[in-house]
Amino acid sequence: MFADRAKILIRSGKGGDGHVSFRREKYVPDGGPDGGDGGKGGDVIFEIDDGETTLINYRHKRKFSAEDGEPGSKRRCHGSNGNDLILKVPAGTVIKETETGKVIADMSGENRRQIILKGGRGGYGNMHYATPTMQAPKYAQPGQESREIEVLLELKMIADVGLIGFPNVGKSTLLSRVTNANPKIANYHFTTLSPNLGVVDMDGGGFVLADIPGLIEGASEGAGLGYEFLRHIERTKLMIHVVDAASTEGRDPVEDVYKINEELKAYRADLAGRKQVIAANKLDTLSDDVFECDESPLKRLKDEFEPKGIPVFGISAVSGQGIAELFRCVQTMLHELPRETTVFEPEYDPQVHFTGKALPFIVERSTEEADTYIVEGPRIERMLGYTNLESEKGFQFFQNFMRENGILKRLEDMGIQEGDTVRIYDLQFDYYKE
Q1: Residue 343 CB-density burial (10 A; 0-12 exposed, 13-18 middle, 19+ buried)
Q2: Nearest-angstrom CA–CA distance, 151 and 350
Q3: What is the DSSP letter of 28?
Q4: Nearest residue to 41 (alpha-carbon basis) of 98, 80, 6
Q5: What is the DSSP-derived secondary structure letter of residue 217?
Q6: Which of 87, 331, 352, 373 gives 20 to 30 Å between its CA and that of 291?
Q7: In 171-286, where does DSSP find H-type helix?
Q8: How many CB atoms lie within 10 A of CB 337?
Q9: pLDDT tens-digit series, residues 32-43
Q10: Cross-strand pairs, 244
Q11: Number of helices (H) and strands (E), helices first, in the chain?
């Protein structure tokens, strides 16, 4: 089955933790800290593979993870970085955040490779936290947490021209006649269960033509398979609206055009306003009397739509009648339209919306001493190394640091009371509210 939609969970790699260790060698009794840094976690990268045409690889596997970074080790050894995860997708794949439906990236045009989730940064080892006043830091930075989101992959076919219309009007026959495509053709509703692409070669420039499976009334609301295929029209610059001029199934071709345009408008308001050409197909099945009378289907279509700026061509996909004129008109109209591929702009940045950042400090209640709170963290330890708490100015700087970094608020949220003890490494303070 043609797979043009998939929902998957992607996770970047966690950063490796920094290491706590001290140099221990013979004749070096007071070796300093030598804990190494953790490695960076792997990124999640999407990349276009021109050999892929569907999202079938993501139908049966749902979770994809990059590799975690390795922790640091002693002797200043850096942990290895985690391997990136590269997910191959066909050109035209749009990546959306599942919950909001917002576009993260459109893998089309020049955007052939994009990092969607960045791996966590590796944590610093304790060798980074040595200061003149704290020469044996027993703290290393943990690696940054991994990032995980659920994304929706949607393949929106890249074609210049789309063939639209009700089932069994001859779209597949027309595509097979004018391109090298080889779609399955039979006289059944929804015989075409997947979009087919073909290249129309013409003097003065060819173009890509897509056969969009037949639409029905209610397609924009999910009836039949219509909703699944309407997304493939979104990138087309121009549409050839194929109708059954012979009414072989009892439908009125004029009404068919209006009904399909209503479905396009209901799905996306701007679609019905895009350039269209009407191909009145199956003229070979009409008798000369019907074809030449004033009320012929072709004349009715021309009278109805050409005053609205929509060209109408009578064709026979079986015999080839009128096809050359139809495609010369399509070629001329395409030359008047912008050549750039429609690209959907990003609306959601996972890096901004991700909230799983490691805290720059730890605040906890002591399990050994009553009314005592412990505050630790690399930024605090570093700040203590360059701050003289015995001076009035230095102590004021320390208080501002605690307030601006939210540490005082965290203590208050945990229920600290005046007179309780706050222990920060080897320092101890009594808490008094300002």
Answers
A1: middle
A2: 10
A3: B
A4: 80
A5: T
A6: 331
A7: 171-178, 226-230, 253-267
A8: 12
A9: 888 899 999 999
A10: 281
A11: 10, 18
